[in-house]
């Protein structure tokens, strides 16, 4: 009785979201990220599963109201905002859309491509993308990012000052990547300012419900299904989801697409958002990560929901 092109009824989605949470609650594989000191304090027991539908309904199970820093999940939405402003071809020329096959913070990847960052989901490409945000000063660019991501979430997002301070004190590697990009003419602004805007965007506080709604906005052709506000165009959503499919889970993107069949983006604080075009999005949060930096319980819960809700894009039935 499941209509093609839509999710099963509200009760069934609710039941499956609860089942996904119950199934993986006790899984304790993986480790909390500690290269950013403020993240090391996260409670590894936290676990949230949310589903936001394009009709505006939201299912929230577990620690769905507990905030964490959005981290690399921000990259997907900043990319969408920049494409909306500049057009995707300009961004593609500067940043690219191909997987590096290397970890998200790789310096080697940049050198191998003579300074081309390859895609907007690794740190190099995200820095190059953030450098394209409109605004005369880093302060203006930061406000643009904060307001844009807030529109995706449907509420005012705020900076986690402690995470921002902690990462700013320890992000020598991102500073180095930004300098390297500057040397290749891939960023036009002062690198330190670009890194600061990037570090702030990563330190925005969200909960699992927020990332589900943000993802559902991409699923809904750019209209936030809860506020009904248009954030970006349909074309930008399509382009962003294509980039997420090939690069959103870093060097594990192929495995992820093979197993789960949905465009997705992870962050090192433990969030993952997976988008089912036209239908909705799954937002999960659990701080223990695998070696590529993707939440272990989040991956399993998303796989379960993709399977049981029939979301895999490559499945014909
Ligand atoms: N702010 C983090 C960094 O630059 C984001 C990385 C991530 O979430 N994978 O290292």
UniProtKB/TrEMBL annotation:
<comment type="subunit">
    <text>Homotetramer.</text>
</comment>
<feature type="binding site">
    <location>
        <position position="72"/>
    </location>
    <ligand>
        <name>substrate</name>
    </ligand>
</feature>
<feature type="binding site">
    <location>
        <position position="123"/>
    </location>
    <ligand>
        <name>substrate</name>
    </ligand>
</feature>
<feature type="binding site">
    <location>
        <position position="174"/>
    </location>
    <ligand>
        <name>substrate</name>
    </ligand>
</feature>
<dbReference type="Pfam" id="PF04960">
    <property type="entry name" value="Glutaminase"/>
</dbReference>
<keyword id="KW-0007">Acetylation</keyword>
<dbReference type="GO" id="GO:0004359">
    <property type="term" value="F:glutaminase activity"/>
</dbReference>
<comment type="similarity">
    <text>Belongs to the glutaminase family.</text>
</comment>
<feature type="binding site">
    <location>
        <position position="268"/>
    </location>
    <ligand>
        <name>substrate</name>
    </ligand>
</feature>
<dbReference type="InterPro" id="IPR015868">
    <property type="entry name" value="Glutaminase"/>
</dbReference>
<feature type="binding site">
    <location>
        <position position="250"/>
    </location>
    <ligand>
        <name>substrate</name>
    </ligand>
</feature>
<protein>
    <recommendedName>
        <fullName>Glutaminase</fullName>
        <ecNumber>3.5.1.2</ecNumber>
    </recommendedName>
</protein>
<feature type="binding site">
    <location>
        <position position="167"/>
    </location>
    <ligand>
        <name>substrate</name>
    </ligand>
</feature>
<feature type="binding site">
    <location>
        <position position="198"/>
    </location>
    <ligand>
        <name>substrate</name>
    </ligand>
</feature>
<keyword id="KW-0378">Hydrolase</keyword>
<dbReference type="InterPro" id="IPR012338">
    <property type="entry name" value="Beta-lactam/transpept-like"/>
</dbReference>
